[in-house]
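Throughout our pipeline, every protein is held as a single compact record rather than as scattered files. The record that follows is passed on verbatim for readers who wish to inspect the format:
___
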Amino acid sequence: MAFMEKLPAGKVLLDDTVPLTAAIEASQSLQSHTEYIIRVQRGISVENSWQIVRRYSDFDLLNNSLQIAGLSLPLPPKKLIGNMDREFIAERQKGLQNYLNVITTNHILSNCELVKKFLDPNNYSANYTEIALQHVSMFFRSEPKWEVVEPLKDIGWRIRKKYFLMKIKNQPKERLVLSWADLGPDKYLSDKDFQCLIKLLPSCLHPYIYRVTFATANESSALLIRMFNEKGTLKDLIYKAKPKDPFLKKYCNPKKVQGLELQQIKTYGRQVLEVLKFLHDKGFPYGHLHASNVMLDGDTCRLLDLENSLLGLPSFYRSYFSQFRKINTLESVDVHCFGHLLYEMTYGRPPDSVPVDSFPPAPSMAVVAVLESTLSCEACKNGMPTVSRLLQMPLFSDVLLTTSEKPQFKIPTKLKEALRIAKECIEKRLIEEQKQIHQHRRLTRAQSHHGSEEERKRRKILARKKSKRSAVENNEEHSAKYSNSNNSAGSGASSPLTSPSSPTPPSTAGPHRWYRHATVPMGSAPPMLGKMEKLYTQKQDWELIVAHIVNSLLRNSDKLKKVEKLDLNQVLYNFTVEVRNRCKGLDLIDRVPEKLWTEVRDIIQAAMIKTIPNKKKCKKAKWLSEEALQIAEKRRKAKGKGEKGKIHPSECRLPKSSRKR
């Protein structure tokens, strides 16, 4: 069938189930009205965000369109006089932000076309009903026996999937439903395999699968025809809704919340599990189970929309199971979605949040056991049971199914392999999305904890305790060194030598040891600091310690070229004073360790350049080795002191090896 060959090919890369968040960043008052600048973000990526400008009248128009849902939405009221006052605008902005939060967190409202167009006009500006009519009209050119009765406007939740009520010209009283849909982001089948599998769907015979009357596809969309059922779907039965009504009107705010009877729950649940097991055994991916995709035919449930996985459309519950990394296969997705279906059948409404911490009273504890295995915190963290395991549970094991229809769905081996590869690609994209969400959640949790008021107080207390502890250690060390110095002076012990080029340094227990008072919260000091402490305890030359600090801090530094010219053997006391004075101005409370040590490094660099003299350039004969220069220097010093005769003659001769060749 070549009814749509000339239409452009290609799948829609945008996933309509990714939630949108909106935050009002600012407002601007013009001559007669106020505009609100809104930042909209798709998913968790900050880069995938954009700005829109909306007036209050735009919010009011959206709210009027959403009244069909029957919800009481918190839109701030209108005000004719004084609506340009600054305080009123600020208060209205808070109310509009609350309104946006409500509609973006409601699972049904956030996925409807009205909200998507309001928040993302660039991607949802097309008229999808007109596009679908164009495709259907081209189809009727080659199939004149079909005729459109009326469009079934917005009876489904998908934006890019449209429905039409049909009839056959030879049988005018018989009604059928035509569904048309674009390709989705999870379409990984080749065009040839995709069209072959779509055309195979009418041959699928199963007592619990709603039969497809006609199916065809091209490179960009698919079209299927089924019989119209006046009773509607399982969701229509639960919500007491009319099948032809819009999705928002039927399911957003049900008038009466009442679950099904226990026997209905057991029978319908067993039938759905049986058809899921059949599809899994055939290697046919599904992943689109929810109450609107289960058609009621008397006391029998029949599964709908097998083509969704072939088209690559995202699941209705994707925003739920993408939060849990253990739900990473289409089989586990089906089991999790079955938990949602069972919850709606039991309580007459969807769960408020997932995972579910506690379940309300149910007709049987066996129902709660199945719900806990699919929707509880433990199940979402540890993984879903298999369909076979659910069939063995007490709720469904004793249900007797009486059907004479034999299941039949023959898939060629080549297409089975194509389905397997497509299934792996769908699961791979799901796993990658779950990984990104998990990383984002960890980062957000860490930032929230680090910026909380309790955490700030705790860090301040720790910083004070650490500062007091270091002060006590300094006093004890000072006392010990003072007593040791007195003992050394009384016994006539000589003091350690210091460099002749600089004055004697002050006491190490005094303020010279500035690094001892630097308390760095949330992180440990660099390993260099421990090394420096060791050098002090060994009572080595203080100038060598400073040189060690400088060399450690200036490693891989941009200012290394300037510092290489400095004579680190000529470290003056001014350097110590300069560093100490600069470090007194550091703010050590609630500081990031990396930034704090960067400032310390910059302080030492600046003090070195300011106080330490440059190296003196000395000329020497290039043909003499270092050994020869040392001997010559020794002879010159001895001659100056009049001690030339005390030098052994062997030490006065320059070795032959000292001359460079």
